Amino acid sequence: LPGELNAYFKSLNRQKRSIALDLKNPRRVEILYRLVAKSDVFVQNFRKGVAERLRLGYEDLIKHNPKIVYGAATGYGPLGKDSGKPAFALTGEARSGSLWWGGPNDGNPYNLGGIADQMAGVMLSYGILGALVARERKGVGQKVDVSHLGSLMWLAGNRYGIALITKNVPRRQDRGSVLNPLWNFYRCGDDRWIALSMNQSDRYWPLLCEAISRIDLLEDPRFAGMEVRAENREELIRLFDGIFESKTRDEWEGILSAVKNVIWERVQDVFDLPDDPQVVANNYIVDLDHPVLGPSKWLQTPVGYSTTPISSIKSAPGHGENTEEILMDSLGCSWDDIRVLQEEGVIL
Q1: Which of 16, 21, 113, 218 can bridge 28 by disulfide, Cβ–Cβ 3.0-4.6 Å?
Q2: Cα 116 to Cα 86, 93, 104, 150, 163, distances in angstroms
């Protein structure tokens, strides 16, 4: 990005302020402890043991704020022989089994695009909110532990839950051989795709046959029920491929919309979303005038509050952009205090 901005950081850190401290400077803990004393939540994602060596562990901080909610994000969880093992998103995705979720059934793992960091962050915020409620009700702070490994296992809750109960290996969704062709996606004549999403296939089969003007398929013994459709799924998928390739996606959208209760959706990519009427109506993407990037589009937290709605008014900060502001507003430091901290190398 222009100005040596980091796209990963900028996309995920709006609405925040940034203070830059030299963690190797002995006086930096004094500033951090004073901030902790005034804070509700402290979050760190250091490798196990690092926060403690920096005197920023949970036991260190509760001396300054016994009711602090302390969030710790790791690769593998706080216990076990691998709890101190170094980790990034892909290691969590590999260990959790998520690399076998997508792609064709060809024996190769497939990267799902760094979802471990995102999911662990969601779970950590979920856990912190629970701890804040507990503090409100019981008057206690606590440590909240979240990991890449556990978060991705939880994301797979449905498929893993069923697998553990039935002892059946979860199937990959290879579109050429899915068990239910009514739960699949098809290429249209203009090289765009449409997805069918009808899991109760016997219920929806007559409606779909009506929508695609193939009532004759209702009498075809190969497709006369869910089980036989599953047996003949590859043949039915090839048939559907030919049907959907006969018209453009816009034409199919009009046809499928005319039949009540047929469940379908267009397959979009990220650049379709800013103009999607539902995205616009629900404010899932917002416009900001960034000081370096200029007018640009950003994801909004997709949660609606009836009384205290979310408002994105601040882009992600630069490194240490708000150091002086935080020291003055939160800790009551004077400009002379800040000058001394700069001279001593405590703040960067």
Answers
A1: 21
A2: 14, 6, 21, 10, 21
pLDDT per residue over 283-308, tens digit each? 999 998 888 889 999 999 999 999 99
Record the pTM: 0.89
Q: Are 347 and 337 in contact (CB under 8 A)?
A: no
* Residue whose C-alpha is closest to residue 91's, from 29, 42, 47: 47
Helix (H) or strand (E) holding 299: strand 294-299
pLDDT (tens digit, 9 = 90+) per residue, 191-230? 999 999 999 999 999 999 999 999 999 999 999 999 999 9
Q: Say if CB 256 and CB 265 are below 8 A apart.
A: no
Which residues fall within 8 angstroms of residue 81, CB to CB, at 6 or more apart?
none
140 Cβ contact partners less than 8 Å away, ≥ 6 residues apart: 67, 134
**Phi/psi of residue 72, each to 5°?**
-125, 120
- DSSP state letter for 85: S
Each residue's pLDDT tens digit, 39-69: 999 999 999 999 999 999 999 999 999 999 9
CA 299 to CA 287: how far, in whole Å?
Answer: 9
Structure tokens at 109: 């793992």
- What is the identity of the amino acid at 333? C
- Residue 42's nearest CA partner among 128, 127, 119 is 128
Residue 164, classed as helix, strand or coil, is helix
CA atoms within 13 A on the CB side of 321: 13
